[in-house]
Amino acid sequence: MTGVRDAAWTLRRLDPSQDPGDALTRGIPARVPGTVSGALRDALGEDRVATVLATDGPDTVWEYRTRVTTAGGRHRFMSTGVATVAQLLVADQVVHESHSAFAPWDVIAELPSGPCEIALRILPTASVSVPRKPRARWLSPLVSERSLRWRRTPLIGSIDWPGALPVLGPWGGLRAVPLPSSADDAAPHPSLGLVPRAVRTRVGGDGSGVVTVELAAGAGTTPDLRADTAGSAGAAAELADVGCSADPDVAVARGAAVEHARETVHITVEPPCEVDAQPVTAERVVTASDATSCETFTVDVTVPDPALWWPHGIGEQPLYRVRVRTGQGECTYAVGFRTVCAEPRDRDHHGLALRINDVPVFARGAVWAGADPFEVAADPQRTRDVLERLRAGGSTMIRVPGTACYETEDFHRTCDELGLMVWQDVALGPQDPPDDPEWRAGLRDEVRYLAARLASHPSTVVISGGTEVIQAPVLAGRPAEQWRTDVILRDVPRAVGEAGADVVVVPSSPCSDADLDAAQHAYETGEASGERASSSSVPTVAPTDAADGVSHYFGVGAYGRPLEDAVARGVRFAAEALAFAVPPEPAAVREQFGTDGPLDDGDSADAWRAGVAHDPGAEWTFEDTTAIYVHRLFLDRDSDPDAGLATPGQPASDGAGTGHVERLEYERAALAHVFQRTFAQWRSEESPCQGALVLSALSMAAGPGWGVLDASGRPTAAWYGMRRACAPVAVSFLPAGGDGLPVHVWNDGPTPLTATLRLTVATVHGGCQQPLDIPVTVPAHGETVIRADLADGSFRDLDHAYGFGEREYDGVSAQLVNPSGRVLARDVHLTGGPRRNDAPDPGLDAHWVRTEQGEWSVAVTAFGLARFVALDLPRGAVAEDGYVHVLPGETVHVPVSGALTAEGRAATRVRALGVPSVPVDAESG
Predict the structure, then answer these.
(1) Could you tell me which of 670, 785, 672 has the C-alpha nearest to residue 726?
(2) Is the full-model pTM beyond 0.85?
(3) Distance CA 577, CA 555 (A)
(4) How crowded is residue 576: how many other Cβ atoms within 10 Å of its Cβ?
(5) Higher model confidence: residue 245 or residue 772?
């Protein structure tokens, strides 16, 4: 018997105006789960995707089709979601239609015995009418199509962002399970036919773990497809396997829970191999009378003293295996135990701050843009590669925004394993949510399903009601009574609470403290709380304030403010921050555009500009934003305002950075500096900040997008700067002007860190003073601060902050060295800031080094001060550090990972700002 799991899908475009001989009319191969844009990319190439989708007409239909051979009978078709207006056809008969990209499918259809055609048709979204009134109370400049506020579809394809593509097709996959025959249903003593619908965990007040398994009668309930299945419920599944879960609102079919029917449920919770504990087993006889008001059944299993799941760097990520066996077969799940809560807020403590397992965490990371610009259902390995790269850059949190599609189970499982916390937005963007009973009921169902799906994932710690739902009317100048709606203050938090998800709820980002309190009340009680703003009241706090609630902070970034603004504004938790146009590394630019300087080449200039990060309607781009900081750091008279120079340097020559290649090098250097300094300021215990997420994780098009990773997932200069400030163990200088030059040492780990802080001072005469070793003990989850300017027992004006006489020093390096001599972290501060007028050639020298473990690094030595040193590597190889400063006579080792051939090593070069690159010599010895 050939099922759809093994069958090949074909994607066709059905359009009356299309040439019958066109390849899309004949059909191209497609993946399920997958989307139209992903299939087009795979079949036609990246360059054709946007062009093909732009030619879709008002009558264009995309059709997925396959042929299966089965024994026939009733089958249940299930999906996490299909975007957006879609029909399921069995033997060319429509058996289901959906108008939401996010509604789960649970469809029973009769299949004939033998061969059968299965099709999914994706109809134009506009083919389904929506109400024209009441009109939206305000409009968003991001989304011009007004009807989209009614439609449950990803907004990403309707916003004029580089690389943004519409999400069309079965992103949530499709799967089918044969159902018992009517003869089985009529058995003399029918069982309940229970199948798991959801699994969630919590940690009790006594420290014990509790696994809650929710089951329902299989005759009318979607099984939880997140699980690995075996037995009759799983082995018989014959459609493309995909992670998804049960719809929490699918009712048990009448007759399934027959009086006196019963079933035995066996549950085993197995600890991970690194935990010294025995499995916990439970056996429960469930009867029809045990059904809840929702006609579901729950079984709790207590796990004594479970090993707790922690974010990356703070602790380990133990995952327990839960096996649930009923008469329908066996399902397995991977779960974790942890607690999460928000810090209490009062008159003196504002904004969102998270505690995991009762430990405060500084959450840092990025807004997720997907692992594959063309495919929501990205290849699982690609998803893992991108997430691992973000974690290597110091990220501990990923936010899935409300403008995007929901993510797959592969994404969430990988975040569990990697220790990456997830902030999940409900798919609501900067539009006025309809106050329509039917629409709101549908949204509540969607949110309950989403929250239940994520409840077993310890990585999911925040669920928010969307992106800029509150901010949009604020910035549109609407009166305060229109800033908030019950949809996000009550409906969303209440639905999350009903799903039993142990998370912190946020009504929308950004929002105020009052909004956070109202959402938490609705989550806990299901009721609305707080007084609404009236037409006569005057707000005292705006939901966009940086120090209150949750903010989207772009003071440093889009608004071009100096770096100290990130501290002066009192940012508490920035769910979006630091938006810049970030250029890829030189090798990626050559690969994508065929030249090192695309704007110097007429053939590539238009392609470069198409990828520049921008917002719809703005007369400027984020490349202009990046240029502001290049000028501030390297070209303006006030070289580095945040360093507090008393005597500014001379302005750079007018000809500096005129060629695109040179400008890109200055942009990369500026971004490495800005990202490191800003995150270091936020991470300091002196800062109120408890979270900051960069916009964004990955650029969605070739060229300078928002991503700290380029469109192919490779690190950019922003990633390197962020890594130095955000690694679990990190060192960073934070110049304090006349108050000296503090060195901040951070240790996220669960135990104190004992090490040596080695300070080396470079003078303007071209040499370095004798290093000074300072023993340090950094507390667990803590920070230690050392004044470098006072470290030798006297005062040295290492940053030339007072400006008396000629500058003596050129820079200071700090190395954190463990007792075995291994360098754990390193940073260098350039006296007076990063600019140097007419800097001499530093005399770079570099050679390859291979460790006993077979790992490669490049040893870089400079005879003078070398600024922003980075490697230019071939495709497939990645430098694990970059844009570092090398003091005179110092040797710095830059680790290299990935595919590295002899030819690649020979082609590698070392760059430093303002000087020609040099080759890397072959391995010495």
Answers:
(1) 672
(2) yes
(3) 8
(4) 25
(5) 772
